[in-house]
Write a structure and sequence with these properties.
The structure holds 2 protein chains of 2 kinds. By secondary structure, chain A is an alpha/beta fold. Chain A is built from 13 helices and 8 strands. In chain A, strands 2-1-3-4 form a 4-stranded parallel beta sheet, sandwiched between helices. In chain A, strands 6-5-7-8 form a 4-stranded parallel beta sheet, sandwiched between helices. The chains are: A alpha/beta, B mainly alpha. At the A-B interface, helix 1, helix 2, helix 3, helix 4 and helix 10 of A face helix 3, helix 4, helix 5, helix 7 and helix 8 of B.
Amino acid sequence: MTEYLLYPGCVASVRELGYEIAMRAVFKELGADLKGRDDFNCCMPACLVHSVDYVRGLALTSRNLAIAEEEEMPLLTLCSSCFGNLSRAKYLLDTNKELRRDVNKHLSAVGREYTGKAKVKHVVTALYEDYTPEVLNNINVEPLTGLKAAPFYGCHLFLPQRYAKFDDSDFPEKLDHLIQMTGADSVDYHEKSSCCIGCGSFFGKVSEEASFKLAEVILDDAKVAGADALVATCPFCMMQLEVGQMKLKEEKGKLYDLPVFHYVDILGLSMGLKPSELGLDMRRLDPAPLLSRLGR
Amino acid sequence: MFVVSFGFNPRKLLQRVSSDLQGLLESDELWLCAWCYRCTERCPSGIQPTEIFLLTRNLAARQGHIPANPRAIMGQIMRSGRSIPVPSDFDEWRGEYGLPPIGATISQTALDEQRKIFGEKLLRRLEA
Protein backbone atom coordinates (compact mmCIF):
# COMPACT_ATOMS: atom_id res chain seq x y z
CA MET A 1 0.00 0.00 0.00
CA THR A 2 1.32 3.42 -0.96
CA GLU A 3 1.06 6.09 1.74
CA TYR A 4 0.71 9.80 1.06
CA LEU A 5 0.31 12.88 3.20
CA LEU A 6 -2.54 14.72 1.51
CA TYR A 7 -2.02 18.46 0.99
CA PRO A 8 -5.53 19.58 0.01
CA GLY A 9 -4.84 23.20 -1.02
CA CYS A 10 -7.59 25.80 -1.21
CA VAL A 11 -8.83 25.74 -4.83
CA ALA A 12 -9.55 22.00 -4.90
CA SER A 13 -11.05 21.70 -1.41
CA VAL A 14 -13.12 24.90 -1.63
CA ARG A 15 -14.00 25.48 -5.32
CA GLU A 16 -13.50 22.08 -7.00
CA LEU A 17 -15.05 19.55 -4.62
CA GLY A 18 -15.88 17.28 -7.56
CA TYR A 19 -12.16 16.90 -8.24
CA GLU A 20 -11.42 16.12 -4.58
CA ILE A 21 -14.22 13.51 -4.56
CA ALA A 22 -12.88 11.86 -7.75
CA MET A 23 -9.29 11.94 -6.53
CA ARG A 24 -10.17 10.29 -3.21
CA ALA A 25 -12.31 7.64 -4.93
CA VAL A 26 -9.58 6.75 -7.44
CA PHE A 27 -6.77 6.57 -4.88
CA LYS A 28 -8.97 4.46 -2.58
CA GLU A 29 -9.63 2.08 -5.47
CA LEU A 30 -5.87 1.94 -6.11
CA GLY A 31 -5.31 0.95 -2.47
CA ALA A 32 -3.48 4.13 -1.45
CA ASP A 33 -3.54 5.33 2.15
CA LEU A 34 -4.14 9.09 2.33
CA LYS A 35 -3.20 10.61 5.65
CA GLY A 36 -4.34 14.12 6.59
CA ARG A 37 -2.86 16.79 8.90
CA ASP A 38 -4.71 19.78 10.25
CA ASP A 39 -1.71 22.05 10.72
CA PHE A 40 -0.58 22.81 7.18
CA ASN A 41 -0.47 26.44 6.16
CA CYS A 42 -1.03 27.99 2.72
CA CYS A 43 1.50 26.97 0.03
CA MET A 44 2.14 30.71 -0.25
CA PRO A 45 1.98 31.50 -3.96
CA ALA A 46 5.38 32.84 -5.01
CA CYS A 47 3.64 35.51 -7.11
CA LEU A 48 2.10 36.92 -3.93
CA VAL A 49 3.73 36.36 -0.53
CA HIS A 50 7.27 35.69 -1.81
CA SER A 51 6.92 38.98 -3.69
CA VAL A 52 6.87 40.81 -0.39
CA ASP A 53 9.76 38.92 1.20
CA TYR A 54 11.71 36.26 -0.68
CA VAL A 55 13.19 34.43 2.34
CA ARG A 56 10.19 34.62 4.66
CA GLY A 57 7.96 33.55 1.76
CA LEU A 58 10.15 30.50 1.23
CA ALA A 59 10.11 29.78 4.97
CA LEU A 60 6.29 29.83 4.97
CA THR A 61 6.13 27.43 2.00
CA SER A 62 8.83 25.20 3.52
CA ARG A 63 7.00 24.93 6.84
CA ASN A 64 4.76 22.44 5.00
CA LEU A 65 7.82 20.50 3.78
CA ALA A 66 9.07 20.32 7.39
CA ILE A 67 5.71 18.82 8.45
CA ALA A 68 5.98 16.23 5.66
CA GLU A 69 9.45 15.29 6.93
CA GLU A 70 7.98 14.64 10.40
CA GLU A 71 5.53 12.19 8.85
CA GLU A 72 8.15 10.59 6.57
CA MET A 73 5.61 10.42 3.74
CA PRO A 74 5.51 12.17 0.36
CA LEU A 75 3.24 15.20 0.19
CA LEU A 76 0.46 14.68 -2.34
CA THR A 77 -0.97 17.89 -3.80
CA LEU A 78 -4.24 18.25 -5.70
CA CYS A 79 -3.39 21.64 -7.15
CA SER A 80 -0.61 22.28 -9.65
CA SER A 81 0.02 25.67 -8.07
CA CYS A 82 0.66 24.05 -4.65
CA PHE A 83 2.88 21.51 -6.43
CA GLY A 84 4.79 24.32 -8.15
CA ASN A 85 5.33 26.36 -5.00
CA LEU A 86 6.38 23.38 -2.88
CA SER A 87 8.67 21.95 -5.61
CA ARG A 88 10.25 25.36 -6.15
CA ALA A 89 10.97 25.74 -2.42
CA LYS A 90 12.46 22.24 -2.30
CA TYR A 91 14.66 22.88 -5.35
CA LEU A 92 15.93 26.24 -4.07
CA LEU A 93 16.68 24.94 -0.56
CA ASP A 94 18.30 21.75 -1.86
CA THR A 95 20.64 23.64 -4.21
CA ASN A 96 21.54 26.66 -2.07
CA LYS A 97 22.97 26.00 1.41
CA GLU A 98 22.97 29.65 2.46
CA LEU A 99 19.34 30.06 1.52
CA ARG A 100 18.43 26.88 3.43
CA ARG A 101 20.27 28.24 6.48
CA ASP A 102 18.38 31.57 6.26
CA VAL A 103 15.03 29.81 5.82
CA ASN A 104 15.74 27.45 8.72
CA LYS A 105 16.45 30.47 10.96
CA HIS A 106 12.82 31.53 10.46
CA LEU A 107 11.55 27.96 10.84
CA SER A 108 13.47 27.43 14.09
CA ALA A 109 11.51 30.35 15.60
CA VAL A 110 8.45 28.05 15.45
CA GLY A 111 10.37 24.88 16.35
CA ARG A 112 10.66 23.45 12.83
CA GLU A 113 13.42 22.53 10.39
CA TYR A 114 13.72 21.57 6.73
CA THR A 115 16.41 18.92 6.18
CA GLY A 116 15.91 18.04 2.49
CA LYS A 117 14.15 14.70 2.95
CA ALA A 118 10.64 15.88 1.97
CA LYS A 119 9.19 14.56 -1.28
CA VAL A 120 6.55 16.45 -3.26
CA LYS A 121 4.06 14.73 -5.57
CA HIS A 122 1.08 15.90 -7.58
CA VAL A 123 -1.90 13.60 -8.18
CA VAL A 124 -0.79 13.17 -11.81
CA THR A 125 2.95 12.69 -11.09
CA ALA A 126 2.05 10.13 -8.41
CA LEU A 127 -0.15 8.21 -10.85
CA TYR A 128 2.59 8.26 -13.49
CA GLU A 129 5.58 7.52 -11.26
CA ASP A 130 4.18 5.41 -8.42
CA TYR A 131 1.44 3.47 -10.22
CA THR A 132 2.88 3.68 -13.78
CA PRO A 133 0.89 3.78 -17.05
CA GLU A 134 1.28 0.00 -17.47
CA VAL A 135 -0.52 -0.72 -14.19
CA LEU A 136 -3.25 1.82 -14.98
CA ASN A 137 -3.71 0.16 -18.36
CA ASN A 138 -4.15 -3.23 -16.68
CA ILE A 139 -6.96 -2.04 -14.39
CA ASN A 140 -8.81 -0.33 -17.21
CA VAL A 141 -11.85 -2.64 -17.13
CA GLU A 142 -14.24 -0.26 -18.90
CA PRO A 143 -12.09 1.51 -21.52
CA LEU A 144 -13.31 4.87 -22.84
CA THR A 145 -13.16 3.75 -26.46
CA GLY A 146 -14.13 6.52 -28.87
CA LEU A 147 -13.52 9.43 -26.49
CA LYS A 148 -11.38 12.14 -28.09
CA ALA A 149 -9.78 13.80 -25.08
CA ALA A 150 -7.68 16.95 -25.42
CA PRO A 151 -5.00 17.11 -22.71
CA PHE A 152 -4.42 20.48 -21.05
CA TYR A 153 -1.15 20.31 -19.13
CA GLY A 154 -1.29 23.62 -17.23
CA CYS A 155 1.99 25.19 -16.08
CA HIS A 156 3.39 24.07 -12.76
CA LEU A 157 2.96 20.35 -13.36
CA PHE A 158 5.97 20.48 -15.70
CA LEU A 159 7.40 24.03 -15.70
CA PRO A 160 10.13 24.85 -15.05
CA GLN A 161 11.61 21.42 -15.55
CA ARG A 162 14.26 21.94 -12.90
CA TYR A 163 11.59 22.41 -10.22
CA ALA A 164 8.89 20.00 -11.39
CA LYS A 165 11.18 17.22 -12.70
CA PHE A 166 8.26 15.61 -14.52
CA ASP A 167 8.00 16.10 -18.27
CA ASP A 168 9.67 17.67 -21.29
CA SER A 169 9.22 21.44 -21.14
CA ASP A 170 8.73 21.98 -24.90
CA PHE A 171 6.89 18.82 -25.82
CA PRO A 172 5.22 17.32 -22.75
CA GLU A 173 3.68 13.92 -23.46
CA LYS A 174 3.04 12.16 -20.16
CA LEU A 175 -0.57 13.33 -19.81
CA ASP A 176 -1.20 12.16 -23.39
CA HIS A 177 0.25 8.79 -22.43
CA LEU A 178 -1.89 8.59 -19.28
CA ILE A 179 -5.03 9.48 -21.28
CA GLN A 180 -4.32 6.63 -23.71
CA MET A 181 -4.20 4.21 -20.75
CA THR A 182 -7.93 4.82 -20.20
CA GLY A 183 -8.73 3.65 -23.74
CA ALA A 184 -9.45 7.23 -24.91
CA ASP A 185 -7.60 8.91 -27.79
CA SER A 186 -5.46 11.87 -26.81
CA VAL A 187 -6.00 14.75 -29.22
CA ASP A 188 -2.90 16.61 -30.37
CA TYR A 189 -3.36 20.38 -30.60
CA HIS A 190 -1.09 23.38 -30.46
CA GLU A 191 -2.41 24.97 -27.25
CA LYS A 192 -2.20 21.86 -25.07
CA SER A 193 0.74 23.23 -23.09
CA SER A 194 -0.51 26.86 -22.81
CA CYS A 195 -1.10 28.90 -19.68
CA CYS A 196 -4.72 29.61 -18.60
CA ILE A 197 -3.69 32.49 -16.23
CA GLY A 198 -6.03 30.93 -13.65
CA CYS A 199 -3.67 31.43 -10.76
CA GLY A 200 -2.72 34.88 -12.02
CA SER A 201 -6.33 36.01 -11.88
CA PHE A 202 -5.68 37.78 -8.58
CA PHE A 203 -4.84 40.92 -10.53
CA GLY A 204 -8.45 41.77 -11.25
CA LYS A 205 -9.79 43.09 -14.53
CA VAL A 206 -6.59 43.01 -16.62
CA SER A 207 -5.85 39.35 -15.95
CA GLU A 208 -9.55 38.46 -16.19
CA GLU A 209 -9.61 39.88 -19.71
CA ALA A 210 -6.36 38.15 -20.61
CA SER A 211 -7.55 34.78 -19.29
CA PHE A 212 -10.83 35.18 -21.21
CA LYS A 213 -8.89 35.76 -24.45
CA LEU A 214 -6.55 32.86 -23.75
CA ALA A 215 -9.50 30.55 -22.99
CA GLU A 216 -10.94 31.36 -26.42
CA VAL A 217 -7.65 30.53 -28.18
CA ILE A 218 -7.32 27.24 -26.29
CA LEU A 219 -10.96 26.21 -26.80
CA ASP A 220 -10.98 27.12 -30.53
CA ASP A 221 -7.84 25.07 -31.06
CA ALA A 222 -9.12 22.01 -29.15
CA LYS A 223 -12.45 22.16 -30.99
CA VAL A 224 -10.82 22.40 -34.44
CA ALA A 225 -8.62 19.42 -33.52
CA GLY A 226 -11.79 17.38 -33.01
CA ALA A 227 -11.87 17.08 -29.21
CA ASP A 228 -15.00 15.83 -27.36
CA ALA A 229 -13.68 16.99 -23.98
CA LEU A 230 -10.74 18.63 -22.24
CA VAL A 231 -8.66 16.81 -19.64
CA ALA A 232 -6.84 19.07 -17.18
CA THR A 233 -4.46 18.39 -14.29
CA CYS A 234 -5.03 21.54 -12.21
CA PRO A 235 -8.19 22.83 -10.49
CA PHE A 236 -7.41 26.41 -11.62
CA CYS A 237 -7.32 25.28 -15.27
CA MET A 238 -10.60 23.37 -14.82
CA MET A 239 -12.26 26.51 -13.49
CA GLN A 240 -10.87 28.76 -16.26
CA LEU A 241 -11.82 26.41 -19.10
CA GLU A 242 -15.36 25.96 -17.78
CA VAL A 243 -16.04 29.56 -16.83
CA GLY A 244 -14.41 30.61 -20.14
CA GLN A 245 -16.94 28.53 -22.10
CA MET A 246 -19.84 29.97 -20.08
CA LYS A 247 -18.66 33.55 -20.70
CA LEU A 248 -17.96 32.95 -24.41
CA LYS A 249 -21.49 31.58 -24.81
CA GLU A 250 -22.97 34.58 -23.02
CA GLU A 251 -20.85 37.31 -24.62
CA LYS A 252 -20.15 35.95 -28.11
CA GLY A 253 -22.75 33.23 -28.57
CA LYS A 254 -19.98 30.67 -29.09
CA LEU A 255 -20.88 27.06 -28.26
CA TYR A 256 -18.00 24.68 -27.66
CA ASP A 257 -19.77 21.82 -25.88
CA LEU A 258 -16.46 20.66 -24.39
CA PRO A 259 -16.93 19.14 -20.92
CA VAL A 260 -13.89 19.65 -18.71
CA PHE A 261 -12.54 16.66 -16.80
CA HIS A 262 -9.63 16.18 -14.46
CA TYR A 263 -7.45 13.22 -15.40
CA VAL A 264 -8.68 11.28 -12.33
CA ASP A 265 -12.25 11.57 -13.69
CA ILE A 266 -11.51 9.63 -16.87
CA LEU A 267 -9.15 7.25 -15.06
CA GLY A 268 -11.94 6.52 -12.55
CA LEU A 269 -14.45 5.92 -15.35
CA SER A 270 -12.05 3.49 -17.05
CA MET A 271 -11.66 1.66 -13.71
CA GLY A 272 -15.42 1.15 -13.61
CA LEU A 273 -16.38 3.89 -11.13
CA LYS A 274 -19.71 5.63 -11.73
CA PRO A 275 -19.92 9.33 -12.69
CA SER A 276 -21.67 10.11 -9.38
CA GLU A 277 -18.84 8.43 -7.42
CA LEU A 278 -16.45 10.81 -9.20
CA GLY A 279 -18.33 14.01 -8.41
CA LEU A 280 -19.13 14.50 -12.11
CA ASP A 281 -22.62 15.71 -11.25
CA MET A 282 -20.95 18.78 -9.69
CA ARG A 283 -19.26 20.17 -12.79
CA ARG A 284 -20.25 23.63 -14.11
CA LEU A 285 -20.69 22.16 -17.60
CA ASP A 286 -22.79 18.99 -17.51
CA PRO A 287 -20.82 16.07 -19.00
CA ALA A 288 -23.92 13.77 -18.89
CA PRO A 289 -24.72 13.86 -22.65
CA LEU A 290 -21.14 12.93 -23.54
CA LEU A 291 -21.05 10.28 -20.81
CA SER A 292 -24.27 8.71 -22.03
CA ARG A 293 -22.85 8.58 -25.57
CA LEU A 294 -19.97 6.63 -24.01
CA GLY A 295 -22.44 4.32 -22.26
CA ARG A 296 -21.93 5.74 -18.73
CA MET B 1 0.89 34.55 -27.29
CA PHE B 2 0.24 38.26 -26.74
CA VAL B 3 -3.23 38.70 -25.39
CA VAL B 4 -2.82 41.53 -22.91
CA SER B 5 -3.67 44.65 -24.90
CA PHE B 6 -1.20 47.07 -23.32
CA GLY B 7 1.64 44.71 -24.18
CA PHE B 8 2.77 42.86 -21.09
CA ASN B 9 6.16 41.63 -22.20
CA PRO B 10 8.73 39.96 -19.92
CA ARG B 11 11.61 41.25 -22.10
CA LYS B 12 10.50 44.86 -21.61
CA LEU B 13 10.02 44.34 -17.87
CA LEU B 14 13.50 42.87 -17.63
CA GLN B 15 14.93 45.79 -19.59
CA ARG B 16 13.27 48.24 -17.20
CA VAL B 17 14.91 46.51 -14.20
CA SER B 18 18.16 48.12 -15.39
CA SER B 19 16.94 51.16 -17.35
CA ASP B 20 13.96 52.42 -15.33
CA LEU B 21 14.02 50.67 -11.97
CA GLN B 22 12.20 53.32 -9.94
CA GLY B 23 9.47 53.69 -12.58
CA LEU B 24 9.05 49.91 -12.62
CA LEU B 25 8.84 49.72 -8.81
CA GLU B 26 5.96 52.20 -8.87
CA SER B 27 4.13 50.46 -11.75
CA ASP B 28 1.34 47.89 -11.78
CA GLU B 29 2.93 45.97 -14.70
CA LEU B 30 5.56 44.55 -12.36
CA TRP B 31 2.73 42.64 -10.64
CA LEU B 32 1.21 41.16 -13.81
CA CYS B 33 3.60 38.22 -14.22
CA ALA B 34 1.41 35.19 -13.48
CA TRP B 35 4.30 32.82 -12.79
CA CYS B 36 3.91 30.53 -15.82
CA TYR B 37 7.74 30.23 -16.00
CA ARG B 38 7.78 29.94 -19.80
CA CYS B 39 10.32 32.79 -20.24
CA THR B 40 12.54 31.29 -17.54
CA GLU B 41 12.38 27.88 -19.21
CA ARG B 42 12.96 29.24 -22.71
CA CYS B 43 15.70 31.86 -22.10
CA PRO B 44 18.77 30.79 -24.11
CA SER B 45 21.07 32.72 -21.76
CA GLY B 46 19.81 31.07 -18.60
CA ILE B 47 18.41 34.32 -17.16
CA GLN B 48 15.57 33.56 -14.77
CA PRO B 49 13.17 36.49 -15.31
CA THR B 50 10.53 34.95 -13.02
CA GLU B 51 12.87 34.97 -10.01
CA ILE B 52 14.21 38.44 -10.96
CA PHE B 53 10.66 39.89 -11.05
CA LEU B 54 10.03 38.38 -7.66
CA LEU B 55 13.10 40.04 -6.14
CA THR B 56 12.19 43.31 -7.88
CA ARG B 57 8.74 43.10 -6.27
CA ASN B 58 10.51 42.71 -2.90
CA LEU B 59 12.08 46.15 -3.56
CA ALA B 60 8.71 47.61 -4.55
CA ALA B 61 7.05 46.17 -1.44
CA ARG B 62 9.78 47.65 0.74
CA GLN B 63 8.85 51.08 -0.67
CA GLY B 64 5.20 50.36 0.05
CA HIS B 65 4.18 49.72 -3.58
CA ILE B 66 1.87 46.71 -3.42
CA PRO B 67 -1.20 47.07 -5.69
CA ALA B 68 -4.61 46.74 -4.02
CA ASN B 69 -5.63 43.31 -5.41
CA PRO B 70 -2.53 41.33 -4.44
CA ARG B 71 -2.47 43.18 -1.12
CA ALA B 72 -6.06 42.12 -0.38
CA ILE B 73 -5.41 38.46 -1.21
CA MET B 74 -2.26 38.36 0.89
CA GLY B 75 -4.22 39.92 3.77
CA GLN B 76 -6.82 37.18 3.34
CA ILE B 77 -4.08 34.48 3.40
CA MET B 78 -2.60 35.92 6.59
CA ARG B 79 -6.01 36.14 8.32
CA SER B 80 -7.48 32.77 7.29
CA GLY B 81 -4.58 30.79 5.87
CA ARG B 82 -6.29 30.47 2.50
CA SER B 83 -6.44 32.60 -0.63
CA ILE B 84 -10.15 31.79 -1.00
CA PRO B 85 -12.70 32.64 1.71
CA VAL B 86 -14.52 29.64 3.22
CA PRO B 87 -18.12 30.14 4.49
CA SER B 88 -18.68 29.11 8.13
CA ASP B 89 -21.11 26.30 7.20
CA PHE B 90 -18.92 24.97 4.39
CA ASP B 91 -17.93 21.79 6.26
CA GLU B 92 -21.59 20.72 6.47
CA TRP B 93 -21.72 20.84 2.69
CA ARG B 94 -18.42 18.90 2.38
CA GLY B 95 -19.82 16.37 4.87
CA GLU B 96 -22.82 15.69 2.62
CA TYR B 97 -20.36 14.43 0.00
CA GLY B 98 -18.41 12.35 2.51
CA LEU B 99 -15.46 14.77 2.57
CA PRO B 100 -13.60 15.52 5.83
CA PRO B 101 -13.92 19.01 7.40
CA ILE B 102 -11.36 21.71 6.55
CA GLY B 103 -12.47 24.48 8.95
CA ALA B 104 -13.34 28.09 8.12
CA THR B 105 -9.64 28.90 8.63
CA ILE B 106 -6.51 26.74 8.88
CA SER B 107 -5.79 25.55 12.46
CA GLN B 108 -4.88 28.10 15.14
CA THR B 109 -1.38 26.56 15.45
CA ALA B 110 -0.80 26.98 11.72
CA LEU B 111 -2.16 30.55 11.74
CA ASP B 112 0.01 31.54 14.71
CA GLU B 113 3.17 30.02 13.21
CA GLN B 114 2.38 31.57 9.83
CA ARG B 115 2.07 35.05 11.34
CA LYS B 116 5.22 34.57 13.42
CA ILE B 117 7.30 33.53 10.38
CA PHE B 118 5.94 36.38 8.24
CA GLY B 119 6.55 38.84 11.08
CA GLU B 120 4.61 41.78 12.52
CA LYS B 121 6.45 44.33 10.40
CA LEU B 122 5.34 42.76 7.10
CA LEU B 123 1.84 42.08 8.43
CA ARG B 124 1.46 45.81 9.10
CA ARG B 125 2.66 46.54 5.55
CA LEU B 126 -0.19 44.42 4.17
CA GLU B 127 -2.74 46.05 6.41
CA ALA B 128 -1.52 49.61 5.73
